Amino acid sequence: MGLFRRKKQVVEAPEPEPEPTLPPAPDPDELGRRSVADHRDWLLSMVEPLPPFGMELLDAWGLPVCEDLLSDIALPAHDQAAIAGYAVRAADVAGAAEDNPLKLTAIGSLDASDGAEGFGEELPARSAVRVTVGAPIPGDADAVVRLGLTDRGEQELSVFGHVRAGDNIRARGSDVSIGDELIRDGDLLGARNTGLLAATGFDKVLARPRPRVVVLATGTDLVPPGTGLREGEVYDSNSHMLAAAARAQGAQVFRVGIVSDDPEEVKQTISDQLVRADLLICTGGRDDDQTIVGQVVPELGPTDVSEVALQPGHKQGFGLIGDEEVPIVLLPGDPVGAFVSFEVFVRPLLRKQMGLEPLDRSVLDCTLATQVTSEPGVAEVLRARITDTSEGPAIEPIGSPDSHQLGDLAEGNALLLLDPDTEVLEKGDLVLAWPLQKDDR
Q1: pLDDT (tens digit, 9 = 90+) per residue, 134-159?
Q2: First vs last C-alpha separation in the chain
Q3: Which domains, from first to last, does the chain contain?
Q4: What pTM value is reported for the model?
Q5: For the chain, what is the radius of gyration of the CA atoms?
Q6: pLDDT in tens, 31-55
Q7: What share of residues in the chain are helix, strand, coil (percent, to 5)?
């Protein structure tokens, strides 16, 4: 058929990609508020553990391992001396004492750098080989006499004390045997098992990476610490506090710092950070619909802003932004509300990304040292101080209800947890608390 008489091919337009959406949100109460547990579980449903990869041991320190590792070698690799002395046959020095020294022939020496076959022959009867700590034990030797029980003779050796078979010898595989389990899938890699893996020849381990967390704060009234304050300005404390809190959980943190409330600048800044973020934390600039939540984040991906029955921290935002649907959490601008929101919602997200149990944390039963009242229907988290007493830990709230007071937050050593059913608790009642360590771990 001629070229110009062919029918034109009809190219069908591809089906448009569906707009990304968030899963259905939890049902609110009659006041339009979600429960803390419902909101937290909803957030967790949108985050997955980061994929693992092989890392150098030191790079994987503090991270959960994603494989079972068994030893391919024995430790020690051969029988070796546990002390400096003389390798002997125990039977050859039976009965040796200060008043009854026994004579042996000294026929050489071995140190820890010698291999298992360092001596090269079986130990003859009534002979001794001088050994350092870690030196291989010659064949047929079955004990080591410490130096202090000998005269250290170079050719003829006098022994002034007896030993039993096995004394002062580290048997092959007595520390680690071939096939022993060194670390299990899910175990955290710490200093001790790092040493064990290195000792058995492992230089890398399969582990999940540290979540890359980008922290930024918005607000025209914010200035960086270290500069002078003008009327109406405050120092940016939130981005520093939240960055430190994320780092304490094991994250790799990038603190962007202050971004103005200009929507275009915020949008560009957030977009620029997506390439290095597994999670973004933004604090401030949420209450006005014309700022971040109202304009910027929904332009980057599906976003949710909701009321949660939590005090402080009742206003919470979340989105999945960019082509990779990176999670972003939008936290209150008041410092205490931001910190409480991190502990209640962000900390579990980071732990899940690391492959850890999201809700695993230390909870302490404490006795109230004073009466406490709470708003019913709201989970309240109070700054508190725990004191050890003869009857166990006692706890009392500190500071005022003002959620901008960082001094009280820094002074306390716990968060007192009051459930939504609480109205009045009396002195002596049992309550639950989250202890806070100085390093926030």
Answers
A1: 999 999 999 999 999 999 998 999 99
A2: 77
A3: 36-50+209-354 (3.40.980.10), 53-75+175-207 (3.90.105.10), 80-170 (2.170.190.11), 364-435 (2.40.340.10)
A4: 0.84
A5: 33
A6: 999 999 999 999 999 999 999 999 9
A7: 20, 30, 50
